[in-house]
Design a protein that fits this description.
With 138 residues, the protein is α/β, with parallel strands linked by helices. It is 44% helix and 18% strand.
Amino acid sequence: MRSQSGKVLKVLFDHNMPPPIARSVDKIISVDGHQAFALRDKFSKSIDDIDYFAQLTPGREWIVVSKDLQNARKKAERAAILNNRLVAFYLSPALQKKTIFEQAASILWHWPGIVQQRKLVERGLFQLPENKGQFRPL
């Protein structure tokens, strides 16, 4: 089944995200034709953030999920995300302290909003809230 927009979204979960979250989210979002990957399942474990950002096919389909809020503040990494037209979501500090189950549940609860945000913006960095709040631009 294809998503209502017809666009297949691809989600890459950074090295600091547990691979089981990526694999579980993949099973659920694949119902709409989307895909999720753990970074280590797609690239070498030693790949640099800037390198993998550049290797993601430019366009409006890639989303990156990470816990590395510092990455959002680093000039080179931030520029690589924006230049490669990616949308990145960083788990809030409160959400990072939650269990793997609560993190996965929050990502899935926010999934419709994540899809909508990807449709609305060509690129950007956002904080994924712990609760049912809004995404905060970073």
